[in-house]
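Running low. Any example?
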Amino acid sequence: MTTPRWLNDEEQKLWRLILAATRKMDRTLDETLQADHELTSSEYSVLVSLSEAGDQEMRLRDLCIALEWDRSRTSHQITRMDRKGLVAKVKCEGDARGVIVELTPEGERRLKQAVPAHVETVRRLVFDPMEPEQADVLRDYLTAALNSGACDTTGDADALDG
């Protein structure tokens, strides 16, 4: 077993700052969506993905990939949203195991109502306190972190049925 590469004091402070900031952003976005529009962040993410799809529908497996969620989480989320009338599950023609997830008119209506407040919250939390040069540095860092392979947790998309 190799010895962990422990964080030094400055790295530890930065790491904890990153965690605190992301928790605050997540919590604030969740609270805004829930209080103002009775949507969870997960529901909002699904609705956005479907709204941006060509016919406002996606195969369940493609939705898993787009959201970077596992099959079980996505399936349970879609079942809950189907019960609320936000999405509809439809059997995929020609593929007995396949499932198509469609955005319903109610889901589209709720998303359209939520978008302005969500965008304003993102702007207030992320972009208002940020200088343009900070955005460039952050963009470069996040791109490098995602491209490093260290953040890859998606697994094998071919293993997803439906």
